[in-house]
Amino acid sequence: MEPQPTAVSPPIHLRIADDLRMQIERGDLAPGASLPTLADICERYSCSMNSARSAITLLKAQGLITAGRGRAPVVRIPPGKVVRSSERHQAEKDLARRPASERAGIGEAETNLNMSIVDQVFDSTYDTITAGSQLAEVFGIATSDLLLRRRYISKDTRTDRLLSFSTSYMPVSLVSSNPDLMDETKEPWPGGTQHQLSTVGVEIMCMVDQVTGRMPTTVEAQQWGLPDGVPLLLCRRISLDANNRTVEVSDAEYPADRTELRFITPLKPWRKKASTKS
Amino acid sequence: MEPQPTAVSPPIHLRIADDLRMQIERGDLAPGASLPTLADICERYSCSMNSARSAITLLKAQGLITAGRGRAPVVRIPPGKVVRSSERHQAEKDLARRPASERAGIGEAETNLNMSIVDQVFDSTYDTITAGSQLAEVFGIATSDLLLRRRYISKDTRTDRLLSFSTSYMPVSLVSSNPDLMDETKEPWPGGTQHQLSTVGVEIMCMVDQVTGRMPTTVEAQQWGLPDGVPLLLCRRISLDANNRTVEVSDAEYPADRTELRFITPLKPWRKKASTKS
DNA sequence: GAGTGGTCTAGACCACTGT
DNA sequence: CAGTGGTCTAGACCACTCC
After folding, report:
1. Residue B12: CB less than 7 A from any atom in strand C
2. Is the Cβ–Cβ distance between B70 and B27 less than 8 Å?
3. Whole-angstrom Cα distance, residue A30 to residue A254?
4. Is pTM beyond 0.85 here?
5. Residue B3 pLDDT exceeds 80
């Protein structure tokens, strides 16, 4: 009759997962340590194999553990994070006005350091598409207007995993005066996109980064070599010129477990004294 | 003998999940539409219920569908995203020098608009902790030095779900000269943290936002009212004064499915002509 | 080869949703 | 009340790791 407010005990697999999670958070199970085997679990909690398995599946989906055939599940060791700082925007802009000798060797902004160059393969693909409703709105152009789409991929040749992935859009009308900008064989371009745009008289004055996240699909997780339970960070970067016209849009994705996006916001100083008499 | 390179077909539940995912991405299954029932699936793919169920579980974990007892699973409708812009930093700074009458009513920066105030309850809790190794490094202080920790929570009183959650740290040595700053009953403080710091002679000149993401734990998902497969965005904001001293650190989390973090980076102009004769 | 987790099946009961 | 998905069991086979 009377509903028991909170008396119902949660399902067994949730209680197991919660128990293990608390052990991990308390440090009883340090990163890298092995969790109890499924057999251990179903004995200790007197449940079936499949319930123990559900608990493990949940912890995997939460990114707390890594499991694989033949090995007991292991508390995940968080990988170090690669910092991607917005200071790069200004650095790339400054570089665009330097002589070609300085720009040489510094190609795309997305190059991965921290790893020998020989193991990386970089690939860029150019094509031309119609804007479509979503991008047309961002650029303030017609949906049928043409955009140059440039897709950049770099991979680790040993593991065949993605290292970086981004797509850039620019109006064809903006770049067509310099045919080199539409030629993918000119990649990697010394000095990056900001120098490319400088050749058609465009100076970028402001960048807007829009960051969100979601879970990867099965194929994305495979391409990046992501363990279970690791989200993707999505970053759309919009470049504006002095007239607040959108000149480039760039969509990039990053594995959240090994990426930190860093944004620097300088603040304008207060006037000397707020109480200065006018 | 010879290993068949890619001939092995993937497990049945992955093939089902992939098939359904493609139907969703192609638009054959529009957002809001019902997926086939488990019975349908295990007939169509001639598999057992549990395999069909695994496929559904995977799609849930990827955030593509929503499922619940008694209802066929449904293609998730992406909620609109609330934009949190770094322009707020400057706006809050400007506000700090305005008279109290203007500052009044504008409390914490994390207030949620777009919903009637009566349904929100705001709670702030202050306490004092020792810095510990991680925060000590950020502040450049000793691990045993004291920090004022302020925790802010706002909830929807109807659903009892979290609307915002953040934690702020400031060195006690910095704020102790104004006892009001350590008194939680003074919240919400008109004008926010930047005005609070101005009362002890601190002007924030730069903010650094560090963004990453991870999956929520079971309790976090419950507190936020998150459906399966939705990551949390984590943002640590570090405030620096004119001497590049860290004066405040703020950790906030946001549900990735309904949040877009936006960062504006103004770029310094090129000098008039690179070819100007010196 | 022993032990592990991953896949898969068949079948049961329950909580919840629709009508 | 019929049908749905969520939970749970018991048992089987396989791929993989470690010894």
Report:
1. yes
2. no
3. 27
4. yes
5. no
